[in-house]
Structures are given as C-alpha cells and as structure tokens.
Amino acid sequence: MTPPQQNPAATAHTLTGQEPLFIVLNTGSGRGDAQILQDTIRRILDEAGRRHELMPVQDPLRLAETAEAAVRRAQEQQGVVIAAGGDGTLSAVAGVVLGKGVPFGILPQGTFNYFGRSYGISQDTETALRGFLSGQVRPAQVGMLNGRLFLVNASLGLYPQLLEDREAYKQKYGRSRLVALWSGLVTLLRAPRQLSLVLDHTGQSRTLRSPTLVVGNNKLQLEHIGIASEGLEQNQLIAMATRPVGTLALYGLLLRGLFSRLGDADHVLSFAFDRLTVAVRGRRRVKVAMDGEISWMDTPLEFKVADDKLPLVVPADPQYLDRS
Fold it and tell me: Alpha-carbon torsion 270, 275, 281, 283, what sign?
C-alpha cells in the first residue's frame, strides 16, 4: 500500500540525516532471533556512519523506563527515538515519545505490521532501516484510551479474548497468520458473553448489547475487513460492534471479514467519532486490548483522538517503501 502524500506544512521536524539514533529494542518481542536483529541494526548503521545507541529490553515491565531514557537522550542530543518490536512495543514507546518534541521511527517485528505498512515502512529490518536513513517526518494520528496511546486498535469483550487465545497458540505452534486464524475459530466455539454497553457520543447516549467493541485507527486494517475508514481522514476514530448473535453467525462474520465484507453484515454496527465514552453495566473494571497488549481498566472508558500527532519517520526514497 502506498502511504498518503506528505504534507510539508504539517511536518514538525526536518531531518538532516545526521541525528543520533536511540533504539529501544524489545528482545522478547516479534519474530526471529534478537541477537541477529541487533547485529543487523549495528551493521547497517556502522556502514552508514550513523551514530546510534542500542537499548535492549528483556523485561517488558522496564520498556517504558527505557523509552523515557531514550527520549531524554534524544532531547539532549537532538536525536531520534526508534522502537523495534511487535505492535505492543511500538505502541508503548510511542506513548512515551508523544508530545515530547522528538521524531519517532519504527522497526516493526510483529505478525501483521498494520501500522508500519500504512506508512510504507517495511517489515524487513534491513529495508526499514535503510528507508529510515533517508526518511522524512510525517505527522501520524494516534488514538487514546483512558489516557493511554494506541496505534492500530483498542477493544473490549470478545476481541481481547481472541488475542489472548491467539498468543497462547503462537507460543505453542509458532507465529503465522494461519495459526492466528485457527485460534480465532477455536475461540468462537465458546459462547461469548454479552456486554451491556452504554455509549455516549456527541452528547447522546445509547445502549447496546454486544460481545465486543473495537475502536480502529488504521485504514489498512479496516479496509481488509471491509469497514468504511473515511472518518480517519477527518481526524476521527472508527467504532465497530456486533449485535448479539450465535456461534454460527459469528463464524459468518469472521468469513465476511476475511473477504473484506464485514461492513455489509446486518449484525455489524460501525461509526466514526471524535470522542466516545463507554460504560459497561455491572462492571467497574474490564479487560481491554490495546495494539495486542491485554490489561484491565476502570470504567467508564474514554476513547478519543490524541491532541498531538506522532512525528513518525517514513521512507522518503521510493525504493524503500512497502507497497503491499
């Protein structure tokens, strides 16, 4: 997929190509061997004569702490912070970078790489890094849930359960899209619990019973499942929910999603918004998923577009663009 055209007037940073790079690398995230990844990064940057510091993280609990250290170094030395890892790692580091006046780059290592592909950033580390070296800054919209950043989507209900089961299957059978699909089929065999949601949007309140609510911030992912994404171009997020259905109907919705026709389904509701408050009747806390990472949050939940744009470094040289 070719990324949208850069708007020069919206660019907050101009890169010289000499900025030092502070690379936060989650050694337990994504595909492949962490040492190979580090060796690849060092080789390419040494060949390019680019100053850099690798900041590997083994304990996920120290990811934010390491990202904060990287931001401080980048602020002091007019540098750039880069996150290397899966969607959760990219999201966690981006949450620290946002609003700090520091350009942000990514070396995506996740299974689907929706965020990177939306901006033409390759999943191949060498290609992504060489594209970064000749990069430019593009302001990127991000979403917020109760003050925490997400890049691709945030959800509650059935979708977090699907993600938990998918991760368990990946640990057992390996990371692949086929494994992800199979784990989803197995999860849907269990009757999902219906949530009683109270949605407050544009000053109006409505009640909805649904097994899940997903809020999307990624055009590529929405296009793949067949949900209209025009709201993203108007600085909005997209909410999606299904009305109560049985297991067979859920399988039907899954198939529609695979064939990019989910938006045509009678049981699917979707709408764009600037700010959405969600209360869950009978629940003070709910399990949520943000860019694949599961946690618990107090209700009500507030989804909104972040006030600041993320200063994302994207490839300027067309030969390094991911056009998939």
Answer: positive
